[in-house]
């Protein structure tokens, strides 16, 4: 099994077609919206979407973004029927540990672009000796169904578990790691938990930014303490108020996939609405910047993967891989950002399904913490994983040698 | 204010733009040959439909068909309202307003209009004839949406029927939003309504769960909850993030067709094959009225209204007021097996003076399109005993008088005995 070097090169016809579509956008305004500045009450604020579209058409330069993305070492590996795309940024540090970073929806491998250098070379990046000589070999895949990995036939049985299996094979069979750590949020949190449950020998520890819906909405309320019940009830209410996107994606994703594949502004609205809803503060540009927002949208657009990305909700809902009875026994760190979906759960709730060894309630940040608060996020990962580095690294010399050979071979 | 005749005519530029968009549709990267409707419309059917739209569908021919009906527009309270108005053929046609819902349009009723206006020509009796009025909901097709919210549409219709069309008393029929609006008419203007005929119990009554539900009502609540979890995402999205959804649907004709046609397949009695119930042309003409009028965003307004802007409080208050004091206006229900909800009669009787309850053997949410004969027959039968209770035509001299004063008190409270149907169905008295 081998990996091929990969670079992103979107055909000019795709970009020309996109420009034409943006130019002929048929704008519409929901009549009940009160158009006070910054108003997002009925959906993406129309004035903002207009501005974003103008920026997209006149200022945003995909080729420049493409160049920046291609500065990251990217590969593709055939595993089963999947053609898995991933960034593999190796560290030069002597004491190192492989780290798998898993994104969610509606983001992409791009979620982690700001933290890759911070993690592969923490001492240089943070300059405060936080890494203490240790660092990470960072692996960032595009999840099955997403971005440059694209649709993968996972079958009807526990598709999330099948996805996790592909990631495990990437780390072990393709990259030759025997032991590694995993971090993620959203879908990435689910996959990290599955990996830790299914491969406790390989997965040393995991770092999560949320505990997963199965561990909140899936619980029997009668078994919960009062604070837990209050949290679950609040989550339920929040879901009713703003969870329609998820409900649609778990029940009828195909009803919307056509429109989002055909309309770039519709796609941008669908995605940016979520970035706005789950950012810290009220200004999505302040949190992420237009360049990053659009690059993430572009990754969906140029690969035409919004359909499969939504379908992954549908498939997982039909055959869930995690239930409230599943428990992660490997050490878990939970870093909670106050503006993430659902806010901060009680630690006791997390401890029902996770072996929580580190619990951090962050002062700021939201769902896309690695993009919005890269220092806070990366720092927490380094702090938690550093004690595992020596052991894992020492036992892994042979494997490191082995995977070096793999990369030389391609 | 004047009522003006109206003809449907779409600008050529709109049609050309549509053609261009259909030609360049960028389809999702799913299996184009997949025929199942599991996660959304069948990809292969959707491609077939859009292919027909571009190459086989003849808008000008469909437009000519639509224009065979008599269309009008009137400015009501500052808002342009489009409606069809067809006079009945018979000695004494009863005026009847038919109200559509989502995801359809006035086209929902095109098949029943002739059956209702001219029953004699369709195996019925001329004495069952109706003057039929079919308005487009505000924000749908050729009606504007200005300031009215969902809860004002009943008053708007009353204004249209009485002040503009000069009817003194009339009947009303509807399903989906049409049943909510028809109920408003009966609640707010009982003196003007001889009866109302519905294909469902307006769903929002279930927002409040009375403590004394009987077993069949409990089952109804359970299936409603199940429906919302399994099928309700469209409504949740349209009520909470209508702008975000409309951004995409208003920019992609294939995407809009997918969104709307999905519901026609799921809610009709089509046995898995949508064309058992609707031709491609029928489906597309309905989609055309959303696409070319850029009406999708405004068509979501009722979903927003019913969950925002004080509406839940309004409904709970109304529901409290209405429970146990069912409106005096006689109500007939025709329930079709593949419709979204299957309320038991007990539930309907909490809110309505149920005089007729028909459980149909076939048909779904779009009964007027799917089973026009069954529906028309039920409407005729329901209204037959109610026809005697009116002067129908207002007198022009009454214009300018407050509507409530124009209805004689005697006409408002009809003797119960006369309201009973004569067709053998058993009315149930309420204490």
Order of helices and strands of chain A: EHHHEEEHHEHEHEHHHHHHHEHEHHH
Largest protein-protein interface:
A-B, 54 and 55 residues
In whole angstroms, the N-to-C terminal distance of chain B is 44 Å
> Roughly what is the average pLDDT of chain A, rounded to an integer?
92
Biggest beta sheet summary of chain A: 9 strands, mixed
Strand-residue proportion of chain B: 5-15%
Strand order of the largest sheet of chain B: 1-2-3-5-4-6-7-8-9
Structural Rg of chain A: 21 Å
Please name the CATH architecture of chain A: 3-Layer(aba) Sandwich
Q: How many domains, in number, for the residues of chain B? A: 2
Could you describe the 3D structure shown?
The complex is a heterodimer of chains A (410) and B (431). With 410 residues, chain A is of the alpha/beta class. Chain A is built from 18 helices and nine strands. Chain B folds into two domains: 12-62 and 251-293, no CATH class; 69-220 and 310-419, Rossmann fold (3-Layer(aba) Sandwich), CATH 3.40.50.1820. Helix content of chain B is 41%, strand content 13%. Chain B is built from 19 helices and nine strands. Chain B has a nine-stranded mixed beta sheet with strand order 1-2-3-5-4-6-7-8-9, with helices on both faces. In chain B, strand 2 and strand 3 (79-86) form a beta hairpin. In chain B, helix 5 crosses helix 6 and helix 10 (253-267) crosses helix 11 (280-291). Residues 394-431 of chain B have low confidence and may be disordered. Chains A and B meet through helix 8, helix 9, helix 10, helix 11 and helix 14 of A and helix 8, helix 9, helix 10, helix 12 and helix 13 of B.
